[in-house]
Design the sequence.
């Protein structure tokens, strides 16, 4: 299979790369690693990307994008993650296509355009204390009234829950059998009366959000798509999210840094790259990074052909997040005791970025659907195997 870009796509990739080389500084990189939606430097950078139509290039030009194929969207993600050594700076990639596909014209003009310009950010209001792996158990309820929905319930483990301007909420609008038929999607301003947000600290000094909905009056025009069709809309958003958890550009940059570290660091009178076991491990990781690139290119091609990427997204999610853990585990072991030092120590390698990324990688295998569930989806939808 030939993955060589055509001249227009290659020129676009080069333009993005050169822009990032000029714009990305150590200060910006540090803020992006601590991203909570409140960083002025990070916000300014995202808006510069938005001015070029690069935050959501798949969106039509009238909504702030370029009307470009999905491959161009990934090129931006890949190059940005390489330059920044992190990813996750914009929710537009996940929620923009959802609004574009099923949102009203008013929602496209308001939310989609501002997402594409980098002016606003979203969080995902999916997981609940009793509904994580099985989202059909969602119990947060949106009760339809004359001119609004009345929302009550709780969401938890919300990425970007503390810095987002809006939440894409999945709530139960009807008791049905099967249960997934009674869910709907809503856009919720994070400053709406009745919504309380609390921080939740998890491993890696990451702060997630916990949201409490107490008689929140939500205008009917905030319903996204069709009432009671939210579960299928949610699955489409999750397919995109599962393709992008750990871009190949970031993995490639981390691997390059490790190779340089192995060449420069001496132990026992020789550099680390002279150890055959270390050389073998780094070579194995280099092969796996290329596999990631191939998986994502395949998914982008399928999306541009109008094909479903359900089980392909699951394949990417499993391999990418588990590679992330293997790569960063190798990094920490390679650095020895220094790999445990945080960014505030003058002795820590890579300014502590890899130590923190290692901790974050521990929960990446269950965000957006655990590896176990993804393997079931691959077996059933990809291989046609029975449920039991």
Sequence:
């Amino acid at each position: 299979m030939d993955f060589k870009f055509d001249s227009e796509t290659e020129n676009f990739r080069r333009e993005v790369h050169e822009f990032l080389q000029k714009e990305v500084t150590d200060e910006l990189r540090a803020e992006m690693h601590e991203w909570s939606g409140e960083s002025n430097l990070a916000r300014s950078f995202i808006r510069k990307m938005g001015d070029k139509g690069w935050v959501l290039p798949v969106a039509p030009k009238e909504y702030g994008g370029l009307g470009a194929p999905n491959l161009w969207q990934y090129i931006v993600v890949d190059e940005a993650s390489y330059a920044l050594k992190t990813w996750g700076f914009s929710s537009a990639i996940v929620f923009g296509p959802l609004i574009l596909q099923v949102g009203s014209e008013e929602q496209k003009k308001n939310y989609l355009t501002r997402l594409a310009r980098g002016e606003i950010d979203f969080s995902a209001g999916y997981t609940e204390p009793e509904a994580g792996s099985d989202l059909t158990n969602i119990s947060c309820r949106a009760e339809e009234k004359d001119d609004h929905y009345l929302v009550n319930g709780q969401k938890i483990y919300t990425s970007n829950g503390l810095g987002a301007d809006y939440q894409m909420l999945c709530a139960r609008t009807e008791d049905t059998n099967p249960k997934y038929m009674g869910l709907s999607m809503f856009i919720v301003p994070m400053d709406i009366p009745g919504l309380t947000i609390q921080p939740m600290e998890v491993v890696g000094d990451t702060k997630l959000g916990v949201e409490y909905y107490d008689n929140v009056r939500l205008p009917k025009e905030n319903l996204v798509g069709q009432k009671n069709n939210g579960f299928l809309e949610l699955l489409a958003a999750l397919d995109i999210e599962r393709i992008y958890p750990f871009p190949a550009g970031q993995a490639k940059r981390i691997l390059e840094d490790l190779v340089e570290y192995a060449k420069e660091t001496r132990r026992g009178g020789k550099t680390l790259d002279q150890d055959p076991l270390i050389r073998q491990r780094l070579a194995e990781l280099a092969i796996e990074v290329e596999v990631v690139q191939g998986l994502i290119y395949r998914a982008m091609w399928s999306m541009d052909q109008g094909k479903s990427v359900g089980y392909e997204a699951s394949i990417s999610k499993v391999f990418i997040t588990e590679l992330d853990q293997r790569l960063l585990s190798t990094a920490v072991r390679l650095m020895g005791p220094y790999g445990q030092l945080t960014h505030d120590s003058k002795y820590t390698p890579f300014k502590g970025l890899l130590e923190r990324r290692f901790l974050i990688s521990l929960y990446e295998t269950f965000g957006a659907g655990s590896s176990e569930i993804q393997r079931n989806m691959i077996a059933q939808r990809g291989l046609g195997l029975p449920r039991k």
